[in-house]
Amino acid sequence: MNKLQSFLKIMMKILKTLGYITAASILFSLYSNWHVIRTSKNKTYSNVSSIPKNKVGLVLGAGKYRTDGGINLYYQHRVNAAIALYNAGKIDIILVSGDHGRVDYNEPLDFKTDLLLEGIPEEKIVLDYAGFRTLDSIIRAKEVFDLDSFTIISQKFHNERAIFLAKSKDLNVIAFNAQDVYGSNSIRTTAREYLAKTKATFDIAFNVQPKFLGDKIKIN
């Protein structure tokens, strides 16, 4: 066997191995997404009148503005959903958990400002500035804000993952589905969410913890 033949034989073995790895990765991602969605079955609601009451509604953070300067509709619809639940008496307290990793970027404060403009009393709004990602928001709700039962507020695709994370931490949660967003931007979001659900499975398997915890904060 000459050198070229040996080289080609080695390359075929490598490609075959990579094919197995790729196939396994795809199968794991498919399973992860199926499992996350199944876990949230019958735990999400789209109708205000049908959702059970919880004391606290946990709004999952989002940036207020798109890169082009327009309002991020994912953000706006979550604001609207929180207001609808509060006004219907389905939640008493709105806990906003989002990213405040930079001085010039403050998701929780943006939410608070808009909630106040819509008449939500300031004492009914609690801010979590260290909700850097969904896992952080869920675990901090339990470990920092001492909650074992609450209503998650976000879009359905996001709520499914949040419920999976919460149930993995033995939390009793339901979720309200804010209005979704459609168009080219939603396609990118759907693709990212597919990967995020896969990563959530890894995070639980390896007991990944939030970036920050801290002292207990009592919600009255």
What does the largest sheet look like?
6 strands, parallel
What order do the SSEs take from the amino end to the carboxyl end, as H and E?
HEEHEHEHEHEH
> What is the fold named in CATH at topology level?
Rossmann fold
> Based on CA inertia axes, which overall geometry fits?
elongated
Alpha-beta classification: alpha/beta
Name of the level-1 CATH class? Alpha Beta
> Could you estimate the helical fraction of the residues in percent?
40-55%
Q: Please indicate the count of domains.
A: 1
Report the total helices: 6
**In CATH terms, what is the architecture?**
3-Layer(aba) Sandwich
Mean pLDDT, all residues:
90
Gap between N and C termini: 78 Å
Radius of gyration: 21 Å
- Share in β-strands: 5-15%
Low-confidence stretches: none
Q: How would you portray this structure in words?
A:
The protein contains six helices and six strands. With 220 residues, it is an alpha/beta fold. The chain is elongated, with a radius of gyration of 21 Å. α5 (156-168) packs parallel to α6. Helix content is 49%, strand content 14%.
Question: Summarize this, please?
Answer:
The chain has 220 residues and is α/β, with parallel strands linked by helices. The chain has helices at residues 3-39, 73-87, 107-117, 134-143, 156-168, 184-205, and strands at residues 44-45, 56-60, 93-97, 125-128, 149-155, 172-178. The chain contains 6 helices and 6 strands; from the N terminus they run αββαβαβαβαβα.
